[in-house]
Design goal:
- The complex is a heterodimer of chains A (about 110) and B (about 110).
- Chain A is mostly beta strands and about 110 residues long.
- Chain A has no helices and 11 strands.
- In chain A, strands 2, 4, 5, 9, 10 and 11 form a 6-stranded mixed β-sheet that branches. A 5-stranded antiparallel β-sheet of chain A has the order 1-3-8-7-6, with no helix packed on it.
- In chain A, strand 9 and strand 10 form a beta hairpin.
- Chain A is globular and about 45 Å long.
- In chain B, strands 2, 4, 5, 6, 9, 10 and 11 form a 7-stranded mixed β-sheet that branches.
- The termini of chain B are far apart.
- The chains are: A mainly beta (about 110), B mainly beta (about 110).
- Chains A and B meet through strand 4, strand 5, strand 9 and strand 10 of A and strand 10 of B.
Chain lengths: ~110, ~110
């Protein structure tokens, strides 16, 4: 069964304290892995797509990496405005859920000034 | 208007009411989706439409009825809902074809009393 597990469930950081969020997945052939940011009461905002192991993408203080079993979202010197829930999703190449996004439960990040 | 819009943003309805949620995408995409987001749970895919044709119904109860009159508009008709249907309902769209990123609207916060 295709599934996504994100850890930790919640993470509290001080401003400037770098850390990483984890997304572990099992999927019937990975077509793509997606990271989203979601603010309270809003819809998820697309951040990155990763397609193959070894791929990396960066945007401001965020850097996403991918291996054959997991992805990391590294946050360098975070600021309070980075506080949000970060969602990971995978898309399978084949199988019953082919083409659909399978989401994890998310990691709620709080950055204190 | 840009991106994906949803109306209403908030809805309170009784169990015997009938209401509809509306979604419109201004991105020229060909696929549209309805998701349900409940606390402590991953996003649950409900329906998928590709080029106005329903391609996925993820075992959703018949009290939820989708409608997709064209590639830009998507509706979710609600009737005789249960309190456990209270959640954030999210609409998303994607280009289809070789591009798989989904772009989300702000959601409708539904409360069933």
């Amino acid at each position: 069964e295709d599934q996504v597990t994100q850890s930790p469930e919640a993470l509290r950081l001080q401003e400037g304290e770098s850390s990483s969020l984890n997304c572990s997945y099992t999927v019937s052939g990975l077509r793509g892995l997606f990271w989203y940011r979601q603010d309270p009461g809003k819809g998820p905002e697309f951040l990155f797509t990763l397609y193959s192991a070894g791929e990396e993408k960066e945007k401001e203080r965020l850097k996403a990496t991918l291996t054959k079993k997991e992805s990391f979202l590294h946050i360098t010197a975070p600021k309070p405005e980075d506080s949000a829930t970060y969602l990971c999703a995978v898309q399978a190449s084949y199988g019953g859920s082919q083409g659909n996004l399978i989401f994890g439960k998310g990691t709620k990040l709080s950055v204190k000034p | 208007e840009t991106g994906v819009t949803q109306t209403p943003r908030h809805l309170v309805m009784g169990m015997t009411n009938k209401k509809s949620l509306k979604c419109e995408q201004h991105l020229g995409h060909n696929a549209m989706y309805w998701y349900k987001q409940s606390a402590k749970k991953p996003l649950e895919l409900m329906f998928v439409y590709n080029f106005k044709e329903q391609t996925e119904n993820n075992s959703v109860p018949s009290r939820f009825s989708p409608e997709c009159p064209n590639s830009s508009h998507l509706f979710l008709h609600l009737h005789t809902l249960q309190p456990e249907d209270s959640a954030l309902y999210l609409c998303a769209s994607s280009p289809g074809g070789g591009s798989y990123e989904q772009y989300f609207g702000p959601g409708t916060r539904l409360t069933v009393t």
